[in-house]
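Bumping my old thread because nobody answered last time. Still need a sequence for this structure:
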């Protein structure tokens, strides 16, 4: 078992794809990330030995070592403590696969209760591209390029003057209602595939498209966009010149958990 609170373990955890993404966000934007108590479980035996402690965690993800093919096709309902089954499925995909457990600073929501999923692509010193999906969706759709409901392009020199009053001026795309219906049907099918009850969750996904609320964008502007410009020099010094910050809302706040270099994923997927 590896825990971020242990400096030696933290170095080892940086060898994993998704875990290092979480650590990157905690390093450069600590107030933005909701992630706490980051822990890796490396084996079924390890999980069973520490079961009482590990079952106290709120959230889980799967992961594997950098250089290996990223694990695909392992999904769950999100807010879950069926960690044993999840770990077994992960090991079936990759013997070196692990599960990543963590807590978050807010009350964890069901994955259909969120106001938005958002990915913020950063080309340092040049521009910021925001892709988002709306109510009832989450970060899965935008981080995996499944669909987009709204897109924004913000030149770097405009970060200083951007506000909720002029934010919509940077919108370059909004989905039509007809196209939204297709994404809604696909979202419902996905949530059913991970064991959720459509009679419960379908009412959370509007039948007609509803724009992402201003309070979500205000959170993005205050807590991320304004910080990007302030952090420009330190990000550049660490080689973060082209990256994305991705996640979903918890309550009315954008609460991403990952900061990653997209080119790294593209190069691995081509193997």
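Sorry it took so long. Here it is:
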């Amino acid at each position: 078992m590896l825990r971020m609170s242990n400096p030696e373990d933290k170095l080892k955890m940086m060898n994993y794809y998704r875990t290092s993404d979480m650590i990157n966000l905690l390093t450069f934007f600590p107030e933005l990330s909701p992630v706490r108590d980051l822990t890796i479980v490396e084996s079924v035996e390890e999980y069973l030995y520490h079961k009482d402690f590990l079952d106290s965690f709120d959230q889980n993800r799967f992961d594997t070592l950098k250089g290996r093919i990223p694990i695909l096709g392992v999904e769950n309902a999100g807010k879950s403590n069926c960690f044993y089954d999840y770990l077994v499925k992960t090991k079936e995909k990759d013997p070196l696969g692990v599960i990543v457990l963590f807590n978050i600073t807010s009350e964890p929501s069901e994955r259909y209760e969120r106001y938005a999923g958002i990915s913020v692509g950063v080309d340092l010193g040049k521009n910021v591209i925001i892709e988002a999906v709306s109510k009832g969706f989450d970060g899965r759709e935008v981080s995996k390029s499944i669909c987009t409901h709204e897109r924004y392009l913000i030149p770097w020199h405009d970060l200083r003057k951007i506000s909720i009053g002029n934010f919509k001026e940077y919108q370059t795309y909004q989905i039509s209602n007809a196209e939204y219906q297709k994404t809604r049907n696909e979202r419902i099918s996905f949530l059913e595939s991970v064991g959720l009850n459509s009679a419960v969750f379908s009412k959370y996904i509007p039948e007609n498209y509803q724009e992402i609320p201003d309070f979500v964008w205000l959170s993005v502007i205050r807590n991320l966009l304004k910080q990007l410009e302030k952090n420009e020099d330190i990000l550049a010094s660490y080689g973060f010149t082209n990256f994305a910050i991705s996640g979903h809302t918890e309550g009315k706040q954008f609460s991403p958990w990952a900061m990653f270099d997209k080119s790294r994923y593209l190069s691995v997927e081509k193997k």
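Confidence is low (pLDDT under 50) at residues 265-271. Let me know if any region looks off to you.
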